[in-house]
Amino acid sequence: MHTAIPIKNIYYLLVYSWNRLNEGEVIDVSGIDCTELVDLFSSVLIRGTKHIIRRGLTQGYEAQSNAISGIRGRVNISHTARKLLIQKGQTHCEYDEISPNTIENQILKSTLVHLSRVKKIDANLRTELISLSQKLKAIETPQLRTSLFRKVQLHGNSRYYKFLLNICELVANSLLIDEEGNGYKFKDFLRDERQMARVFEEFLFNFYLHERPDLSIKKEKIKWNATAKNPDHLTFLPSMETDISLRSAEKTLIIDAKYYKETLSKFYDTSRVHSGNLYQLFAYLKNLKKRDNIETPIEGMLLYPAIKHSLRLEYDIQGHRIQICTVDLAAHWSSIKDELKNLVYDI
Question: Do residues 322 and 303 touch, judged by C-beta distance below 8 A?
Fold first, then answer.
């Protein structure tokens, strides 16, 4: 299924899932003509890095330890004496100096360099990546590791950096050293069903959060409507947390987002809704109704991504309206937005 999702739609999915809508709008991908993810991410990072350079790179204090004329910061007396620096009119000082060599800039530059070494990248993009990384002369290029991203500490005025670092981290997790040890391959993260399931869920949550500000939208934990002679036994029950709860004064809609290569399961030649998905959603509805004693209708929806086909099933199960729906991720982005809005128009 994933191979038919247009590259630009994948970008929009990620922008929403990272909740970087304002930053994402700065980088317009409508004019980018590419069919490979590595080319898309390279184009976005090139444009984003140029934007940051024009605006001014973030700077931070970097520890320096040098022999200098005069005194600055803390004087290392023993080192000054051992090197006979006084006779030269110098002292060995340890001090902090403003520098663009910050962790976030190191990650940006290192990602540009690593991308330029991907074998199948577009030749023009490779040239741009190399040229841009060379402009960041004062910045180191560490190996891209998960631990490096954990060191980043950005302030509120650096939100645009956060958007680019999201892309850098995705690139870092997708780079594989070529079998010949010469350059990199780019792993197609879309083949990772678990990772894409998280992206799809967060995309939907932030989409409705952004597009339907009139609703109360949240993920909520639901307690089992259960008792036990020994209360400790209740702790063994599995937790229940909704992917998306949309609530208005008139009704509540629980959306359970599912990402599968095949929307329906197959039993011989018969298509069926994934039974586990339906049981899970029904448990949410019954326990939420009982727990909160909600008088307004509580409805449920299983929402799947699909390519070039639409599924709209609707049932009434023990007083609850339940829908099984798909959203066509191969459609034009404006059509995807309209389709998702229409799914919840009556909330």
Answer: no
Burial 287-323 (b: 16+ CB within 10 A, else e): bbbeeeeeeeebbbbbbbbbeeeebeeeeeeeebbbb
Q: What is the pLDDT of residues 171-207, one digit of tens each?
A: 888 877 655 556 777 776 666 778 888 999 999 999 9
Query: DSSP string of 248-261?
Result: -SS-EEEEEE---S
Which of the pair, 17 or 27, is modelled with greater confidence?
A: 17
User: Is there a contact between 138 and 171 (Cβ–Cβ < 8 Å)?
Assistant: no
**Numbered ranges of CATH 3.40.1350 in the chain:** 193-343
Full DSSP string of 272-300: E--HHHHHHHHHHHHHHHHHHT--S-EEE
CA distances from residue 53 to 15, 57, 93, 305 in whole angstroms, order as listed: 22, 6, 31, 38
Helices (H) and strands (E) in the chain, counts: 11, 15
pLDDT at 300: 96
Tokens of 141: 């290029």
Q: Does domain 193-343 have CATH number 2.60.40?
A: no
What pLDDT does residue 282 have? Answer: 93
What whole-number distance in Å separates Cα of residue 77 and Cα of residue 151?
32
